[in-house]
Amino acid sequence: MKLRCKITGFASVLGVALSAALTFTPAYAQSHGARQAPGSRAFAGGMTSPTYSPPEKPAGHYERVVVHGASLVGNLEGDSPDRQVSVYLPPSYAKAPERRYPVLYLLHGFTDSDDLCFGLKSPRPHFVNVQRAADGAYAHGVREMIIVMPNAFTKYAGSMYSNSIVTGDWEAFVTRDLVQYIDSHYRTLATPASRGLAGHSMGGYGTLRIAMKYPGIYSSIYAQSPCCLNANINPNPALMARVGEVQTDAQVAAADFGTKAMLASAAAWSPDPTNPPRFFDLPVRDGKPVPDVIAEWAANAPLAMVNQSIPNLKTYKAIAFDAGDKDVGIAATIRSLDKTLNGYGIPHQFTIYQGNHIDHVHRRLESEVLPFFSKHLKF
């Protein structure tokens, strides 16, 4: 059954720098002068969110492992193919040695990482903590599962979960290298019916992209505030000129969010092994649009891919996506996705809630996402 919620308003968000990458730099409607609530803090663009630390006494067992990505070997960014991966084992895992569990693969967002989402890195609490959300969900009756999150933070702050000679083949890493490792090292139910894929922002984009292209790996998917869904064919020459000036690692590190977003997008979607030292092309050259590169970027937009992906999407048992009403660009694109799926008669769950790009991610992971997989995965 498809659930629909009324869209009550729009505002811009962190993810707009990616979802409208060709046209403008990030804009944020969250008031910079808004009073910060107790237990919350300001994030990029003035957005505020409650923050969450790992539980003092986790119900499950956390471990961090290294997974070799054969699919990432030789990437031209120079990122390590050996990726850190966070794994949260369910409370009964050690007590029930004969029991096997379904697996939920979580994909984090741009500039984020698994160590931030699991509370290992940040000196302050983050806007989501996976262990705390899982423990809260288990306490309310959600069935136990193994939760896995790979670290997709790359040279340009995010892999886009795409396939490029510059970034490496992150599609194959997520669908093959990572799944094979988890199935061979943990007591999983190693079938598509028992695998779920979910993610936030860039991770939501990765969830939809991978689901459209690789059926038969996961049975259920959930995209939280997925960025980058729409194809935009109007590049911003001033922005791209600024991006073109970034050449060194030091310049990359000092770049603002929007510039890094463009660099990551180019590395993922318009690779060019004949164009050192960055080995990618930008959609504007010498102040003029480059149609072939614009077409490459547009071809990687899920709203451009969806009509060709309908047979694959029909294979999924359950599909869901959501966004906050203040997440203007993303709310608009998931409404378009909802309309398209309705046209093809594909059941799905679609929700617009009151919030920005990050302030409900933790609560919805606990109260919506994990219960969704508890309902739809095979145990």
Overall form = globular
What is the helix tally?
13
User: Main sheet, how many strands, which sense, barrel?
Assistant: 8 strands, mixed
Assign the CATH architecture.
3-Layer(aba) Sandwich
Point out poorly predicted stretches: 1-38
Average of pLDDT: 89
**Rg, nearest Å:** 20 Å
Say how many strands there are: 14
Multimeric organization: single chain
Task: Provide structural commentary.
This protein is of the alpha/beta class and 379 residues long. It has a single domain (16-376), classed as Rossmann fold (3-Layer(aba) Sandwich). Helix content is 32%, strand content 17%. It has 13 helices and 14 strands. It has helices at residues 16-19, 114-117, 130-139, 170-185, 202-213, 237-244, 249-254, 257-269, 291-299, 302-305, 310-313, 328-343, 361-376; strands spanning 40-42, 48-50, 61-68, 82-89, 103-107, 146-150, 163-164, 168-169, 195-200, 220-224, 284-285, 288-289, 318-324, 349-353. The protein has an eight-stranded mixed beta sheet, with helices on both faces. A hairpin with a 2-residue loop joins β11 and β12. α6 crosses α8 (257-269). The longest helix is centred in the middle third of the chain and has 16 residues, at 170-185. The protein is globular, with a radius of gyration of 20 Å. 51% of the residues are buried.
List the helices and strands and how they pair.
Blueprint: H1 16-19, E1 40-42, E2 48-50, E3 61-68, E4 82-89, E5 103-107, H2 114-117, H3 130-139, E6 146-150, E7 163-164, E8 168-169, H4 170-185, E9 195-200, H5 202-213, E10 220-224, H6 237-244, H7 249-254, H8 257-269, E11 284-285, E12 288-289, H9 291-299, H10 302-305, H11 310-313, E13 318-324, H12 328-343, E14 349-353, H13 361-376
Parallel strand pairs: 5-6, 5-9, 9-10, 10-13, 13-14
Antiparallel strand pairs: 1-2, 3-4, 4-6, 7-8, 11-12
Helix pairs in contact: 3-13, 6-8
